[in-house]
Amino acid sequence: MLSNKLLPVALLYLLTSLFPVYAETIAVIGTGEVGGALGPEFAAQGHLIIYGSRDPSRAKVQRLVKQTGEEASALLPAQAAARADIVVLAVPGLMVEEITKSLGDLSGKIIIDPTNPLRRGSAGLEHAVATSNGEIIQAAAPGAHVVKAFNTLNYRTMIDPETSGGPVSIPLVGDSDKAKHRVAQLVTGMGLEPIDLGGIENARWVEGMLILWINNRYGSEREGFEFHLRKTR
Ligand SMILES: NC(=O)c1ccc[n+]([C@@H]2O[C@H](COP(=O)([O-])OP(=O)(O)OC[C@H]3O[C@@H](n4cnc5c(N)ncnc54)[C@H](OP(=O)(O)O)[C@@H]3O)[C@@H](O)[C@H]2O)c1
């Protein structure tokens, strides 16, 4: 028989195992390299993950769901976004406007934008839009809080930051300090270092960081590097 003291603890344990309490619901739109890296990482921090996929029943997506955790699931993108507090746009960089608009009303939600708008130029990859993907997404979902994050590193480093041999910074830009703070907690939980680089108008320069990174890492004899920005205050 359980003592009076242990009974409430046992009941709480039973209830939380039957009905797990998740910190937040995160819709990860796109099930490619970045979606497949961030989904399991956020699930490991206690969040409920719903993937948004154009074909949620296909075997590759279902394998990712299984790898992410018992309660994870996959739905069509707009269905996943409607159920979430945070929406991650892990989608092709030149399609963000149409994909954001296809997700329905995102007002009040945090949108994490890891995308890069890239095209091939004569000297390697170049930036492919007049402003930035961060600003394009914010304009497409004016009531949402866009935070650009995770666009300046390879997806493998998101999963195993320690393999990079030292600390790695994740620049965050966006107009809501509260949303940036929330995303910074997710970043820290992954073993990466968030750094607030200002408003969404700075997204173009953060997207430029990736161009610098990729053009040095691939297609040149120069040394590769990871971004680590030292804070001075
Ligand atoms: N790969 C990296 O290491 C890395 C690192 C940092 C940032 N990024 C940026 O993050 C974004 C995602 O990169 P990724 O490497 O994850 O790309 P990816 O492997 O090609 O995956 C993109 C996902 O977007 C979904 N999607 C929705 N609409 C699509 C469409 N019309 N055509 C193709 N896919 C569509 C697909 O998921 P469903 O098939 O399930 O719909 C697809 O798996 C890009 O903007 C990239 O620049 C990439």
Widest sheet, order of strands: 3-2-1-4-5-8
Specify the CATH homologous superfamily.
Answer: NAD(P)-binding Rossmann-like Domain
Question: What is the CA-atom radius of gyration, in angstroms?
Answer: 19 Å
One letter per element, helices H and strands E, the order comes to HEHEHEHEHEEEHEHEHEH
Outline the low-pLDDT stretches. Answer: none
For the record, give the distance between the C-alpha atoms at the N and C termini, rounded to a whole number. Answer: 57 Å
Which descriptor suits the 3D outline? globular
Strand composition percent? 15-25%
**Structural domain count:** 1
Tell me the CATH topology. Rossmann fold
Under the CATH scheme, which class?
Alpha Beta
Number of strands: 10
Q: Tell me which ligands are bound.
A: NADP nicotinamide-adenine-dinucleotide phosphate
The number of helical segments is: 9
Q: Label the CATH architecture.
A: 3-Layer(aba) Sandwich
